[in-house]
Amino acid sequence: MAQSTAQKVLLQLLSHSESWVSGDILASQLQISRESVWKAINALRKQGNEIESRKNVGYRFIKNMSLNPDIINFDTNNHFTGHLHVADEVTSTQSVAKAFLSHHQVIAPTVFIANRQTAGYGRRGRAFYSPAETGLYFSMILPNPTNVWPKAGLMTTTFAVLIADVLRQFFPDEAFQYKWVNDIYLHHKKVVGILTEAVLDLESSSTAAFVVGVGMNIATTAFPSDISAKVTSMTSHPIDRNLLLSRLIETISAHYLDYDDPQYLEKYRQHAVVLGREVQLQLGDETVVGVAQQIEADGALTIKTGNGKLRTFSSGEVTKVNYAGQQEEG
């Protein structure tokens, strides 16, 4: 798709973000008039781009707190060769991604991003609070180039590790942990939810693609009363969501096919909040209480129940974790 003049100007400013770029240079490099440069700058500002201008000096890009596909692509240093779809509001990025996949053949990672979700959801269809500006909500369609059935238990654990590794770059002082199987925790509260779904190719009886949905509480300060005791945010200050998204997208797309590499599971175990603690696991109508002993090689969770019996679960949800004798809901 051909780039607009505004996009071309933005990329020039991003490429020289540490310095000023004169209008004459922009006009010369892009072979357009000074008036076209001025119009492009105004159009970019209307899109949320903060661009400083100084007489006889030129223009300088400062920031954009809105989600912008051109900036996200630029920040990946062109390492991401897939497709980005950015919307201000959707029902759920996961629903949008799956609807897209049902009508398109996807051969490269494709990402759906929203500033706000009106019906965001996680496992078991549970609502995920998704306010505008202060969170990050995206779903990635990841094609499966093989006919091999995935080791489902390892996919979400690996995605959690990949995501947390990126978060540690942005929040180096925070101790992110994993709550089996699909949540990232901070200070014993949820900050990230991950939902991994496989889409089947019925003709070949194989997995055509994975759709991984990620919801993050970055700087949200007010949560609904029914979840406020269970969730938290990573910071009280806005951060560069475009840069964070670019790092997450390129990391996941570069490594998802290696999801069964043992190094990811070992990292997951090292920071698993449930291990050695009493947990409550909900499996359908059954509630299992015991001490989490191990996360197995296939990602399953082994629990030692009160009668000393070891039970291993490949599905279910840990709904409570006992931290030093204090029972908290997960």
Can you give keywords for this protein?
single chain; 330 residues; alpha+beta; Arc Repressor Mutant, subunit A; BirA Bifunctional Protein, domain 2; SH3 type barrels; six-stranded antiparallel beta sheet
Description:
- The chain is an alpha+beta fold and 330 residues long.
- The protein has three domains: 5-64, Arc Repressor Mutant, subunit A (Orthogonal Bundle), CATH 1.10.10.10; 69-270, Bira Bifunctional Protein, Domain 2 (BirA Bifunctional Protein, domain 2, 2-Layer Sandwich); 278-329, SH3 type barrels (Roll), CATH 2.30.30.100.
- 28% of the residues lie in helices and 32% in strands.
- The protein is built from eight helices and 15 strands.
- The protein has helices at residues 5-15, 23-30, 34-46, 69-75, 93-101, 152-170, 241-255, 262-270, and strands spanning 49-54, 58-64, 83-90, 110-117, 135-143, 177-179, 183-186, 189-201, 206-217, 278-283, 286-295, 301-305, 310-313, 317-323, 326-329.
- It has a seven-stranded mixed beta sheet, sandwiched between helices. A six-stranded antiparallel beta sheet has the order 13-12-11-10-14-15, with no helix packed on it.
- The radius of gyration is 22 Å and the shape is elongated.
- 36% of the residues are buried.
